[in-house]
Amino acid sequence: MSLVRALTTAVGVGGLLAGVLVDPALAKTNGITDAAIAQDGVLTSRVDSPVAPGVNYTSFERLDPKGWQRGDILDTDLSKHGVTVDLVNNGGKVSGGQPLSQQLARKGAIAGVNGDFFDINDTTAPLGVGVEQSGKLLNAPAAGHNDTAVIGKDGLGQIAQLFLQGTAVDGTTKLELTNLNSPAVNAGGIGLYTPEWGDAARTRTVDGLPTVREVILRDGVVVSSATTPATTPLAANEQSLIGREAGADALTALQVGDKVDVQYGLRPDAANVAVGISGNYQLAKDGKVPDDVPDADLAPRTAVGFDADGSRMILLTVDGRATGSRGLSLKEMGQLMISLGADDALNLDGGGSSTMLARTPGKAAPDVVNDPSDGSERLIPNGLGLLPVKGSDKLKGFRVESVGTSQDGPDADVSRSSRVLTGLSRVLSATGYDETYAPASGTPSWYAGSNVRVDQHGVVTGRRAGDVVVTATRGSANGRFPMTVLGTPTRLAPSTRQVSLSDPSATGFFEVDGYDGDGFSTWIEPQDVKLTYDSAVVKVVAKRNGFEVNALTSDAVSTVITAKVGALSTQLSVTAGLTSTVVDKLDDLTKWAANAVPVGAATATESAAEGHDGGQAIALDYSLTGSTATRAAYLSQTPQQTLPGQPQKLGAWIYGDGKGAWLRANAYDAAGGTAQTLNLATTIDWTGWKYVEADIPPGLTYPLRFWRIYVVETSPTRQYSGRIIVDDLTVRSAPPVTMDPPAKVIDPMVVTDGTVETSGRWRFAVMSDAQFTSDDPNSDYVKQARRTIREALAQKPDFLVINGDFVDRAFGPDIALAKQIIDEEVAGKVPVHYVPGNHETYGPGDLSEWKKVFGAATSTFDHKGTRFILRDSSLGSLRAGGFDQILDLRKQLDDAATNKTIKNVVVMAHHPIDDPSPTQNSQLGDRKEAAMIVQWLADFRASTGKGAAYMAAHAGTFAATRTDGVLLPLTGNSGKSPAAAPDAGGFTGWALVGIDPKATAAPAGERKWSAPERSWFQVELRPHVDSLELTAPASLRRGQSAAASATVIQDDRRVPVSFPVSADWWGSTLLHIGPAKTAPFWAVASYDPATGQLTALRPGTAQLGVTVNGVSKSTTLRVDW
């Protein structure tokens, strides 16, 4: 997914948080500082909201050296406001379990978290102590699992150890109780079970034990004694004593008819306890993490803590086991609880049990606010709930939000709901609340500033760009929703180019996004979008911020949905059901051949083998040894096979060897460029036959041609040989559809006619991805690298940046050759800044050899008012290259924001924010990190008015886009063959950037919806030119127009001279460059580079010429009457 849509709320300049605009009245903080949450990381998101007087909810996201962490906090003042804390459970029962939401609803709680650890595979009963607000003891052991979070009868909290104390006395015999309603009886002990135990069979508490006895009491009299517990639940007047080993023997003293007095409770030192719930580890004690708290496993966690005097309770959940949230160790959890203000804290059940719910102002019931790792709420035994005082139900205020993102849902794009494009709408809702934030009724009136129109249904329509506050009001109650009106939309794009429905019961979703001319975007209200599609094939219904799609037939079908907004349109395809086709049974060995790289190290051979169904298949025997560089073994098909139809998935039967290689495939699309890479399996971790399959991304140009399947190993230390067998190459396809190709977005930062040598700009050159090795110091790639440097230096730049992958491998001799080429070609003429790419690690597995020669992998320098921040993404992300460089990036941006000598900032790293290719394999691997970088830069330019750019390479194509005013230029390869088609940036070359040192900051009032400082950065994307062709008519009659175009020839590529290729069109005195309507009266002809149209104006002769990267071509035009 492009980060245009994925931008998250992130840290802004000076540590402020930017993102969703909310009513300041509902953004009440709880005294927890950003630094307390961030600890040694950076806080990238924070949202605060009141739950009730004295109860505040905070959600956060942070990045630290170990990765991303998302969490939720409930901060409660226990000393006032009347909020009470209570244990909640399964309808008053100890066993069984319920989702936390149902437990909270039973007691009318407005927030809460899960509680004790429990017997997850059997009775679901909690292991420790449970005490309700009434003081009723529900469950407890006499020993074991006794650490407990306690609310005293004075309303204050603490962490304490609570123990069961109980006896059963028949007059002559006194038996000590070891358990109350526990999931298991302690060894040699006696457990008491009451009607509160619930419906779980009591046999499960002593499963598999040889010596067991149950004595059932009814109204205090023994009615049965048996060696197997009964399976029926206890009646209201019954109790059960279950013993094991010595405890079972002791119970034989109780005979049917005996009167038994059972007394139980907590030890006398716990007389002040009103509420209690157990956990396992005490995470914090007197403001320190105890030494016995482990610092190993990362997992979702839940904790409860109290400040030093017990007047403040902190409930914390952290998500885990997810790409976007790593989870915390117990020690880390303790450290975070202390940082948040807890003096003492207890670990509650975690993993899939971790759950938090909190009420939003104006809602009656709380919602799940964390992300349970099971995907939904787990059945749990108990939890802690917060119960508010009853409010007046009188309207106090409104919570105003976008209707499209007010409902829970995976597609809700809250971060952009406060934006609306000029001429389009945003539908708002206003939910009333009273002084306790409980629901209160009242219909509001709506008001807003003059740059929007708002009707009395809360529909806001943008009139002109700018900030505005929309207000819902009734009497003294009001609610505000700050909004930003963007410019007029210039293009549309669907959130996905393809909705694939696996069967008729499946549901798909898409939204339509609108973009203005400066790259600012938001989703478009369904009411503003007109859809056309085959209604006999699919059903499309507006829902939230987009559209829900369902198939209407069980047949394999496809259709195209066209979305129109005014004069703009975009398309996406919908497919339902896929048909499988075996395109090659791999029973003809003559069509396949094996090879391996590096040559001379890794080896590969092919041979016939038995297939998965008893037929013939092909085996690939490989050895990924002999080198620490990336090794691969290929099984290639000759000739390449055209795949039928428009496949969405490519698969094969693979006999795995369990060696752990990465399994991939390559296929070409009809657009040209290098092969697309498809991931069949991240690791071959199985043995025997298994069918594996890769998704074919939408956006490829059909038909596709299959090339090869291969195993690859990137780790230098993993050296092994193995064998896989490949059988039945298969595609799964839907019926073909034909869509219009997406319109090419032409960004004005790229000079398509002229040069950057204007208005006093100073210049620097950028090259990347030459990818040579020392195996052949005179290879074509080396020659291309030298050629690129010479072409760049000929333009006399202030300095040269090599933005990664100068080499293809990073052994000592490879790095030495790189240094030799730079020394020989540059010879000290200009400074050279070398940013490492992923290939600068290939071989050693890190930058060790590169650093020996080129030094530090990151740096920052200022040049003529521009700050350059060079970062190391060589291992696929900035964090992988060292978390310190992320902290330093934040520091450099904060300094540049206030430094009057800095006019703008350019961040450079090898990996791009977004790979423009359909497979998106060549971009920053951590998508949240990529979004954070762009958001930081967007916040920087919005708060300062200074320009911001992120310049990258790696994707094998030249491109240029922008997001929220942040420029995102991308350089392609200077040596290695490009990855894209020639008309889509797929050429070799380099870039020349021109910076305007006199660029002024954007006006403060315009920064959030426009980028008037756009001209500070311009770039020429210069292809290597082996030869240049200019095609134009030799003659035209006056008033006639015809196409004229140029083509760059490089190797076997024909590159059209149009965006993103930079060129300088020129002509003789009598030829005007520009639209015909702007030509002076004496002009014989005009040529408009934007349209490619040559227009004859008056009789005469004129010359048209074009220059591309220093190579010129011209032609003469004769205009007749």
TrEMBL record:
Gene3D superfamilies attached to this UniProt entry = 3.60.21.10, Galactose-binding domain-like
The Phosphodiester glycosidase domain sits at 215-386
Q: Name one Pfam family in it.
A: NAGPA
Signal sequence segment: none
UniProt xrefs under InterPro entries: Calcineurin-like_PHP, Metallo-depent_PP-like, NAGPA
- Coiled-coil intervals in this record? none
Q: Where is the Calcineurin-like phosphoesterase domain?
A: 763-931
One GO molecular-function annotation for this sequence?
Answer: hydrolase activity
Q: Which SUPFAM superfamilies does the record cross-reference, listed alphabetically?
A: Metallo-dependent phosphatases (SSF56300)
- Highest taxon of source: Bacteria
Q: Which PANTHER family does the record associate with it?
A: N-ACETYLGLUCOSAMINE-1-PHOSPHODIESTER ALPHA-N-ACETYLGLUCOSAMINIDASE
According to UniProt, the name of this protein is: Calcineurin-like phosphoesterase family protein
* Organism listed in the record: Kribbella kalugense
Phylogenetic lineage: Bacteria, Bacillati, Actinomycetota, Actinomycetes, Propionibacteriales
